Amino acid sequence: MINTFPPGLIMFLGAFLIPFLPHLTRQIYMIFLVFLSALSLMNGFGTHLTINLLDYNFIIHHSDNLSFPFAIVFHIAAFITIIYGSHKIDWKENVAITSYAGAAIAALHAGDLFTLFVWWEATAFTSVFLILGGNNSRSFRAAFRYIVIQVGSGMLLLAGAIIFLYSNDHANFGKMSIDETSGLLIFLAFGIKAAFPFLNGWLQDTYPEASEVGTVALSSFTTKLAIYALARSFAGVDILIYIGALMTFFPIFFAVIENDLRRVLTYSLNNQLGFMVVAVGIGTELALNGAVAHAFAHIIYKGLLFMSMGAVLYRVGTCKASELGGLFNYMPITAVCSIIGAVSISAFPIFSGFVAKSLIMSSLGYEGLTFIYFMLLFASAGVLHHSGIKIPFFAFFAHNSGLKPKEAPINMIVAMIISSILCVAIGVFPSLFYQILPYDVSYQPYDFSHVLSQMQLLTFAAFAFICLWHFKIYPPELNSTVLNSDWFYRKMIPGVLENVIIGFKNLNSQFNIFFTKIFQNTQKFIDNLMYKNRVFDREAGFDTLIVVQVFGVVLLILIILQFSKF
Amino acid sequence: MTIKLIKNFGKINSIVLLICVILLILEFAGHRHGEFKIEEFLFFPALFGYISCIIIFKVGVALRSIFMRDEDYYD
Questions:
Q1: Contact between B52 and A474 using a beta-carbon 8 Å cutoff
Q2: DSSP structural state of residue B74
Q3: Which of B19, B24, B67 shows the shortest C-beta gap to A482?
Q4: Which of A127, A142, A286, A129 is nearest to A220 (CA)?
Q5: What pLDDT score does A535 carry?
Q6: Is A453 close to B39, i.e. CB distance below 8 A?
Q7: Quick one: angle between helices A137-168 and A181-193, nearest 10?
Q8: Distance from the CA of A442 to the CA of which of A94, A129, A289, A421 falls in 20 to 30 A?
Q9: CA angle A381-B71-A205, nearest 5°?
Q10: What is the pTM of this model?
Q11: Phi and psi at residue A473, in whole multiples of 5°?
């Protein structure tokens, strides 16, 4: 029975036992859950579990060549994150990480849109506790913004799924078209989690507010789940190519001016998602292999970069480039791991980024998409600039900040070393890596032209940075906030609403004054009529006034009704 | 002269410079073909990488004045 359980479900359910276990047992238990969940991957491809509820077949466990590589890397990420966070005595984040990873893995195996919706929301509700784990007022507020947006994405998915079911008599999680309303709604739902341009604000806004462990977990699952969903439903949709190209392009500049290094990494994450979205948009077998390979490699090296910055944050208490520098002598292992992550993301040959990104670049070449190709090539140089150089350089070199922290805790180092080994192993043995990709495509990333071109591109981009720094042209990092698309809902809309409310208030008080005047004048008039002119020998009271006014209004209505007949 | 360069430019920087020179020389070791014809121009990736990095830097600096706010802007 347990074999037919979808992978991830056991982690999700098992997480609720975590609070009752002592610290060390808890860590072992969590790793045991990950292995138990991974066992279900052995079942092979096909539909393994459906449940009929309310006359609807929920396809709980469906596995195929697309979900399989994602499931593997999600398990690896969960395993590494658990090791990385095992120094924490507090159990709350442990529960969040295990259930979040479990929900994301289970979502990969959803065979219909409603099952997907359930897990889609489960990832939101479990991951929000990771942002709350930042444990300060900023992270508290960020968590609220995060959950509103994530649940919003879920609502779009649900609406799309209902319309899809209504018009197709089934709601299988498969190919869809954005020309239909249901497809468009689901496309938007995926787009929010994949951080499309202008829908990306939540990513840079909230991820860096989580704790050092929380951000590592967050960086692995939600966005890559969205990429998987796009690949399953919208592969080959042309507009994705352009959306993806924009995603690779814009975050580069923001990453250059951002001061918080973990936030720089979220921009870089956004940029990397762009590469995957482009590949999904191309939709050929080679490109989809590229998207999956890139997601796979990306989860590991991005996790590694977040881990190294998390270690710095844990030891120093800040991740701001303006306050860091010169940590290499104190945290050499963290620094080396960070550099391995940086060269991997920059796609230097023999590292994982190279063998993954090459698939995407080559598929662009085969399709003849010249402009997009050069945009992505430009973005590749940008990745080197902000992730490859800026992250390790400003944290571990640059100037001497006077900080003298201890090396990262041993569990963090172990997690970082595992990731580093994976980064190199994927880069050195690409043929082994390509075997787990969805399609059988023979591709050779290592040839003279390819390696030389990539090396020239990256080394000269690095050289440009060196020149800028050496000749003191590169401006110093400043404590600042960089505006992003979250500005629209954090500043613009509240600003507009505030003015509208103030306007209404003013209008209301004007109206009040106006009506009070009318009331008083009527009272005066009736007083004069009744009292001074001696119609009655008494003053017109409040009750009289109301009767008169009601009568007046009724009269007015009667007159209007009379006229409207004509 | 080499020693003077290393002294002025730093050890790591000089190594990067050396690698750059080697990569340019390697250009003549065989035919380097690209996905598109324009890529096959002499030293194209090197120039593209160098210029891209400068552009990113320039645009980044220009964007500072537009998108940069105080640290407590949202607080």
A1: no
A2: T
A3: B67
A4: A127
A5: 58
A6: yes
A7: 160
A8: A421
A9: 60
A10: 0.88
A11: -90, -30
Query: What tens digit of pLDDT does each residue of A29-58 get?
Result: 999 999 999 988 888 888 888 888 878 888
Task: Report the complex ipTM.
Answer: 0.92
Residue with tokens 């238990």: A29
Phi, psi for residue B20 in degrees, rounded to 5:
-55, -45
From B35, B56, B68, residue closest to A361, measured CB to CB:
B35
For A377, counting Cβ atoms within 10 Å of its Cβ (0-12 exposed, 13-18 middle, 19+ buried), the class is: buried
Interface test with A, best of B18, B27, B38, B52 (most A CBs within 10 A): B52
Task: Check A456 against B10: CB less than 8 A apart.
Answer: no
Alpha-carbon torsion, ordered A156, A159, A162, A163, to 10 deg: -100
3-state secondary structure of A91: coil
To test the contact with chain B by mutation, choose from A457, A465, A487 the residue with the greatest count of B C-beta atoms within 10 A, namely: A457
Q: How far is CA A69 from the centre of its chain?
A: 20
- Give phi and psi for A143, each to the nearest 5: -60, -40
Q: Write out pLDDT tens, residues A309-320.
A: 999 999 998 888
Task: Tell if the CB–CB gap between B67 and A464 is shorter than 8 Å.
Answer: no
| DSSP 3-state of A15 | helix
Strands, E, within A268-358: which ranges? none
Domain ranges of chain B: 1-30, 34-75
Taking the CA atoms of residue A213, residue A216, residue A217 and residue A222 in that order, the dihedral angle to the nearest 10 degrees is: 150
- A267 residue type, one letter: Y
What type of residue sits at position B45?
P
What are the residue boundaries of the structural domains of chain A, listed by start?
1-234, 237-482, 488-564
